[in-house]
Amino acid sequence: LNVLVILDASGSMGNMEGNQTRMNAAKNAITEFVKGLPAEANVGLRIYGHQGTGSNADKALSCSSSELIYPLSSYDATSFEQALGKATPAGWTPISLALTEAQKDLSAFKGDTNTNIIYLVSDGISTCDDQPVEAARALYNSDITPIVNIIGFNVNHEGQKQLQEMAKATEGTYKYVSDEQSLQEHLNEATKVAERWKSWKTSQEGWLGYYRTSNSLDIFGYHTREYKKWVDESAAVGLTLTFLYQQRDKMTRESHDYLKQKNTDYHKWIEQEYDKLRDELEALNEQNYAEAVKQLEEKYLTNTSTP
Fold it and tell me: pLDDT, tens digit, for every residue of 217-227?
């Protein structure tokens, strides 16, 4: 399980919400959220728009600013808190850049062997003349196959529309939150859903592995039984030929050698056919297993990526 939080650090995150800034509210919610993740989970934190100011003179600097302040690794409270300290409201809102860099952050964790969850927290529309919807779609279609949750923190109508389009492009979820408590609740709920599906997936993978092994043992047992039949039959025919040959009036040397060769050729062919059938059954078993795993993965992604 890899959980990457992408946090908006644009200037508007310094706006007050009650008795604290949006940034402080987000920091508090994110801190409590990562504390509750499974111990074996990797956690990462990326910020964007944290350099420069909101002035036009600083736009280029700010729109090129995104930093992974806590690389994906196990959660350490002290280190994570120190990293969060770097998140200070500053400039513009380069959402496309943040999503593109997030794909790089998770590139080592392929979706077929990892559960990758991304939370994007933003309080507004992207302001860097970029294409956040396309960036979101590229992220989703990559081989990390992430579960994407987009959270709008007191965003206006225009901002909600863009964030919803991003969620649609990733077949993910969009949630509007207005304060620290609602942000906290959404973070926790999304993770609980993903964890329940992860447990289900693990259980089903176990059953698929069991049936795969059971089929393999059945194939082995069948081949063993047929092999014994082949050995017994070949030996019985061979002994019969030997007995008849020893009775001089029952079989000539020429007939004995001819039938012995026929017996050898026939049972060699039988052995080859048994081996061929065994290989075909084993290949079919592996094919069925691979298809079942693929269907399981698709169902898992579908049920963890949609509202």
Answer: 888 888 888 88
